[in-house]
From TrEMBL:
<protein>
    <submittedName>
        <fullName>Heme-binding protein</fullName>
    </submittedName>
</protein>
<dbReference type="InterPro" id="IPR038084">
    <property type="entry name" value="PduO/GlcC-like_sf"/>
</dbReference>
<dbReference type="Pfam" id="PF03928">
    <property type="entry name" value="HbpS-like"/>
</dbReference>
<dbReference type="InterPro" id="IPR005624">
    <property type="entry name" value="PduO/GlcC-like"/>
</dbReference>
<dbReference type="InterPro" id="IPR052517">
    <property type="entry name" value="GlcG_carb_metab_protein"/>
</dbReference>
Length: 139
C-alpha cells in the first residue's frame, strides 16, 4: 500500500489567506479578525484590526476550529445544532466550544483537509464570503 503525501498548509499559505480575507473585508467596508489553523488545530496566522470588535478575534478562532473539527463550512452547520439537529448536543461534548455561525471554512489540498480559516467581525454572511474568497485564492 502506498500513500501520497499532501503538502501541509504553510505559513505563506496562511498569510495569503489572511491577506485575501482582509482585502475582501476592506473592499466591503468591514473590519474583521482572521484566524488560520493548520490540520492539527495549531494557530498559523492571526490578524485583529484595532478597529474590530474585541471579541471578533475569539469568534474567528472558534469559527476556524469548528470548520476544522467538522470538516465543513460553519455556514452549512447552523441547522445541525438546532433542537433535533444532527449535532444538537455536540458543542457541550467537546473540550473547546464550537461556534456555528457562518465564517469558518475548511481548507483542502488534493482532497485532504489541511487547515481552516475563520473570519469574524462582519455579518455572518459577509464573514463566510470573505473566508470563501480567501480559500479560493489558494487554488
Amino acid at each position: 500500500m502506498s500513500t501520497t503525501a499532501v503538502a501541509p498548509l504553510t505559513i505563506e499559505d496562511a498569510e495569503l489567506l489572511v491577506a485575501t480575507a482582509r482585502r475582501a473585508a476592506e473592499d466591503a467596508g468591514v473590519t474583521v479578525s482572521v484566524t488560520v489553523l493548520d490540520a492539527g488545530g495549531h494557530l498559523l496566522a492571526f490578524r485583529r484590526d484595532d478597529r474590530a470588535v474585541l471579541i471578533s478575534g475569539e469568534t474567528s478562532t472558534r469559527k476556524a476550529y469548528t470548520a476544522l473539527q467538522l470538516n465543513a463550512p460553519t455556514a452549512d452547520l447552523v441547522d445541525a445544532v438546532q433542537p433535533g439537529g444532527l449535532f444538537h448536543t455536540l458543542p457541550t461534548a467537546l473540550d473547546r466550544p464550537l461556534l456555528f455561525i457562518a465564517g469558518g471554512v475548511p481548507v483542502h489540498r488534493d482532497g485532504r483537509l489541511i487547515g481552516a480559516i475563520g473570519v469574524g467581525g462582519g455579518a455572518p454572511e459577509q464573514d463566510h464570503g470573505f473566508a470563501t474568497a480567501a480559500v479560493a485564492a489558494l487554488a
